[in-house]
Amino acid sequence: MSLASLSSRPAPPPAAPAPPALEPAAPRLRAVPEGTEARGFVLYVGFDEAKAAAAGIDLGRLVTELKKVTAELAPGSETHAAVALAPTGAGGRDVEVVRLALQDPAALARYRRTAEAPPEPPSLGVVIDISRKRVLLDGESASLTYKEFELLQYLVLREGRTIERAELIGSLWADGAEGDDDVPNERTIDVHVRRLRSKLGGYEDIVRTVRGSGYRFDRHADVSIRYASTPSPDFF
């Protein structure tokens, strides 16, 4: 097809002007319950220090810049920043760690559902579960009596401190009547400790004898402790 033949055709009608671009609608708040009013909002930012450094910024500067933007867009607004901390290597998505640390109700509810759903995998070593009053040895429940668990728990909650025999008797058998055969003395308390150790099997050395003084529990690599959700008043 030549240029001449193209020019001989009637010119096409002019195209209709394009409609003006519509600005995106601003996000709307969900329905606010009756009797309440919106007083502000929370913006959770998941961004750890390593990612900030890789982006050429630090968390302090990022917070400052966000506060500046807020002040420019909404003069008179008040801002407060809180940094969420987590144990090194804890894992998980940064933003979820932030939401949990700052007690976001939705994140807490989801965490509880997730935590309760899967069964507990068998754990190697010793698990001293203070909340459930049980001891697991390589995933198997140890057949400790109530008093044996109380004895172990007393030492665990005072980790690193030598407990004298008299203190164990006075604290764990305080309700026993005088002359009761079940109440040990400083000579027979060793029998109770020996029975406890025998049920701990290959992990009996987690209860250490301090010659001439008493007993103590020191932190061991193969021992994990699950505390109750409410701190024990016995914890030192």
What is the topology?
Blueprint: H1 3-8, H2 49-54, H3 59-73, H4 94-101, H5 105-116, E1 126-129, E2 134-137, E3 140-141, H6 146-156, E4 163-164, H7 165-172, H8 189-200, E5 207-210, E6 214-217, E7 223-226
Parallel strand pairs: 1-7
Antiparallel strand pairs: 1-2, 2-3, 4-6, 5-6
Structure characterization notes:
The protein is an alpha+beta fold and 236 residues long. The chain is built from eight helices and seven strands, in the order αααααβββαβααβββ. Helix 6 (146-156) crosses helix 8 (189-200).
Jot down its keywords.
33% helix; 7 strands; alpha+beta; 236 residues; three-stranded antiparallel beta sheet; disordered N terminus
TL;DR of this structure?
The protein is an alpha+beta fold and 236 residues long. The protein contains 8 helices and 7 strands, in the order αααααβββαβααβββ.
How many angstroms separate the termini?
A: 94 Å
Stretches where pLDDT is under 50 for at least 5 consecutive residues are: 1-11, 230-236
- What's the mean pLDDT score? 77
> In percent, how helical is the residue content?
25-40%
Strand order of the largest sheet: 3-2-1-7
Listing every helix as H and every strand as E from the N terminus to the C terminus, the arrangement reads HHHHHEEEHEHHEEE
Shape: elongated
> How many strands?
7
Largest sheet: 4 strands, mixed
Q: Pairing-aware structural class of the strands and helices?
A: alpha+beta
How many helical stretches? 8
- Assess the beta-strand content as a share of residues: 5-15%
Rg, Cα atoms, Å: 33 Å
